[in-house]
Design goal:
This protein has 164 residues and is mainly α. It is built from 7 helices and 2 strands; from the N terminus they run αββαααααα. It has a domain of 99 residues.
Protein backbone atom coordinates (compact mmCIF):
# COMPACT_ATOMS: atom_id res chain seq x y z
CA UNK A 1 0.00 0.00 0.00
CA UNK A 2 2.84 2.39 0.79
CA UNK A 3 4.36 1.74 -2.63
CA UNK A 4 1.10 2.65 -4.41
CA UNK A 5 0.82 5.80 -2.36
CA UNK A 6 4.38 6.84 -3.31
CA UNK A 7 3.57 6.30 -6.99
CA UNK A 8 0.46 8.45 -6.66
CA UNK A 9 2.41 11.25 -4.97
CA UNK A 10 5.14 11.05 -7.67
CA UNK A 11 2.51 11.34 -10.42
CA UNK A 12 0.86 14.33 -8.76
CA UNK A 13 4.23 16.07 -8.39
CA UNK A 14 5.04 15.34 -12.06
CA UNK A 15 1.73 16.85 -13.16
CA UNK A 16 2.34 19.89 -10.93
CA UNK A 17 5.76 20.41 -12.54
CA UNK A 18 4.22 20.23 -16.02
CA UNK A 19 1.33 22.51 -15.07
CA UNK A 20 3.56 25.43 -14.06
CA UNK A 21 5.09 25.97 -17.55
CA UNK A 22 1.65 25.50 -19.12
CA UNK A 23 0.23 28.29 -16.94
CA UNK A 24 3.12 30.59 -17.87
CA UNK A 25 2.60 29.86 -21.58
CA UNK A 26 -1.10 30.66 -21.29
CA UNK A 27 -0.39 33.92 -19.45
CA UNK A 28 2.22 34.91 -22.03
CA UNK A 29 -0.26 34.33 -24.86
CA UNK A 30 -2.84 36.45 -23.06
CA UNK A 31 -0.33 39.27 -22.53
CA UNK A 32 0.63 39.27 -26.20
CA UNK A 33 -2.98 39.58 -27.32
CA UNK A 34 -3.82 42.91 -25.66
CA UNK A 35 -6.34 44.52 -28.01
CA UNK A 36 -5.67 48.00 -29.33
CA UNK A 37 -1.98 48.09 -28.41
CA UNK A 38 0.36 49.85 -30.77
CA UNK A 39 3.92 50.77 -29.92
CA UNK A 40 4.65 54.45 -29.34
CA UNK A 41 6.12 56.41 -32.26
CA UNK A 42 9.72 57.52 -32.27
CA UNK A 43 10.23 60.86 -30.59
CA UNK A 44 12.79 62.30 -32.99
CA UNK A 45 13.15 61.92 -36.70
CA UNK A 46 16.45 60.63 -38.00
CA UNK A 47 17.78 62.41 -41.10
CA UNK A 48 18.87 59.03 -42.50
CA UNK A 49 15.46 57.40 -41.90
CA UNK A 50 13.94 58.75 -45.09
CA UNK A 51 15.04 57.45 -48.48
CA UNK A 52 17.38 59.59 -50.51
CA UNK A 53 15.83 61.24 -53.55
CA UNK A 54 17.55 59.89 -56.61
CA UNK A 55 18.48 61.79 -59.71
CA UNK A 56 17.76 60.69 -63.24
CA UNK A 57 19.61 60.03 -66.46
CA UNK A 58 18.96 62.65 -69.11
CA UNK A 59 18.60 62.17 -72.85
CA UNK A 60 22.33 62.49 -73.50
CA UNK A 61 23.17 59.77 -70.95
CA UNK A 62 24.39 62.10 -68.18
CA UNK A 63 23.14 61.56 -64.66
CA UNK A 64 21.50 64.64 -63.17
CA UNK A 65 21.86 64.63 -59.39
CA UNK A 66 18.93 65.57 -57.18
CA UNK A 67 19.18 68.38 -54.63
CA UNK A 68 19.44 65.82 -51.82
CA UNK A 69 22.37 64.13 -53.56
CA UNK A 70 24.12 67.45 -54.11
CA UNK A 71 23.71 68.26 -50.41
CA UNK A 72 25.66 65.15 -49.35
CA UNK A 73 29.07 65.69 -47.81
CA UNK A 74 32.30 64.13 -49.10
CA UNK A 75 32.17 61.14 -46.78
CA UNK A 76 28.61 60.23 -47.71
CA UNK A 77 29.23 60.70 -51.45
CA UNK A 78 32.30 58.45 -51.27
CA UNK A 79 30.37 55.83 -49.28
CA UNK A 80 27.52 55.89 -51.80
CA UNK A 81 30.03 55.42 -54.61
CA UNK A 82 31.62 52.46 -52.83
CA UNK A 83 28.21 50.82 -52.42
CA UNK A 84 27.37 51.32 -56.11
CA UNK A 85 30.76 49.93 -57.16
CA UNK A 86 30.34 46.88 -54.90
CA UNK A 87 26.91 46.31 -56.43
CA UNK A 88 28.30 46.57 -59.97
CA UNK A 89 31.06 44.06 -59.18
CA UNK A 90 28.58 41.55 -57.75
CA UNK A 91 28.39 38.28 -59.72
CA UNK A 92 24.60 38.47 -59.85
CA UNK A 93 24.76 41.78 -61.74
CA UNK A 94 27.45 40.50 -64.10
CA UNK A 95 25.45 37.37 -64.97
CA UNK A 96 23.10 38.07 -67.87
CA UNK A 97 19.58 36.60 -67.49
CA UNK A 98 18.06 34.44 -70.19
CA UNK A 99 15.75 36.05 -72.74
CA UNK A 100 12.79 34.15 -71.29
CA UNK A 101 13.51 35.40 -67.76
CA UNK A 102 13.93 39.00 -68.90
CA UNK A 103 10.71 38.81 -70.94
CA UNK A 104 8.80 37.32 -68.03
CA UNK A 105 10.05 40.06 -65.72
CA UNK A 106 9.06 42.78 -68.19
CA UNK A 107 5.59 41.26 -68.45
CA UNK A 108 4.88 40.40 -64.82
CA UNK A 109 6.51 43.33 -62.99
CA UNK A 110 4.03 46.01 -64.14
CA UNK A 111 1.11 43.71 -63.33
CA UNK A 112 2.33 43.34 -59.75
CA UNK A 113 2.96 47.07 -59.35
CA UNK A 114 6.72 46.88 -59.92
CA UNK A 115 9.00 48.28 -62.56
CA UNK A 116 10.35 46.53 -65.62
CA UNK A 117 13.43 48.78 -65.71
CA UNK A 118 15.63 46.27 -63.87
CA UNK A 119 15.03 43.61 -66.54
CA UNK A 120 17.45 45.41 -68.87
CA UNK A 121 20.77 44.87 -67.09
CA UNK A 122 22.73 46.93 -69.62
CA UNK A 123 20.52 49.97 -68.97
CA UNK A 124 20.92 49.51 -65.20
CA UNK A 125 24.70 49.26 -65.59
CA UNK A 126 24.80 52.38 -67.78
CA UNK A 127 22.70 54.32 -65.25
CA UNK A 128 24.93 53.28 -62.34
CA UNK A 129 28.10 54.20 -64.28
CA UNK A 130 26.61 57.60 -65.11
CA UNK A 131 25.76 58.03 -61.42
CA UNK A 132 29.36 57.20 -60.44
CA UNK A 133 30.69 59.76 -62.92
CA UNK A 134 28.31 62.44 -61.59
CA UNK A 135 29.23 61.67 -57.98
CA UNK A 136 32.93 61.83 -58.85
CA UNK A 137 32.42 65.20 -60.54
CA UNK A 138 30.57 66.43 -57.44
CA UNK A 139 33.46 65.26 -55.25
CA UNK A 140 35.87 67.23 -57.44
CA UNK A 141 33.63 70.31 -57.29
CA UNK A 142 33.66 70.13 -53.48
CA UNK A 143 37.49 69.75 -53.45
CA UNK A 144 37.24 66.23 -52.05
CA UNK A 145 39.36 63.22 -52.93
CA UNK A 146 37.95 61.57 -56.05
CA UNK A 147 37.87 57.84 -56.77
CA UNK A 148 39.36 56.03 -59.76
CA UNK A 149 36.17 54.29 -60.88
CA UNK A 150 37.78 52.31 -63.70
CA UNK A 151 40.46 50.86 -61.40
CA UNK A 152 37.93 50.05 -58.67
CA UNK A 153 35.62 48.23 -61.08
CA UNK A 154 38.53 46.31 -62.62
CA UNK A 155 39.62 45.08 -59.18
CA UNK A 156 38.27 41.74 -57.96
CA UNK A 157 35.27 41.88 -55.61
CA UNK A 158 35.99 41.83 -51.89
CA UNK A 159 35.53 38.46 -50.17
CA UNK A 160 32.23 37.88 -48.36
CA UNK A 161 32.14 38.95 -44.74
CA UNK A 162 34.50 41.93 -45.12
CA UNK A 163 33.89 44.55 -42.44
CA UNK A 164 33.79 48.20 -43.41
Amino acid sequence: MAKGRKNLIARVLMLARLAIPAVFLALTACAAAVPGYSPPPFKEQNKFAKPLESGDVGNEGRYEMSAAEKAMDCKRLTGSMQIVMARLKDAYVLMEPSAAAAGAQKTVAPLKGGSALTADRQAVYARERAKLDAYNAELAAKNCKTLDVEAELARAPDPPGKRY
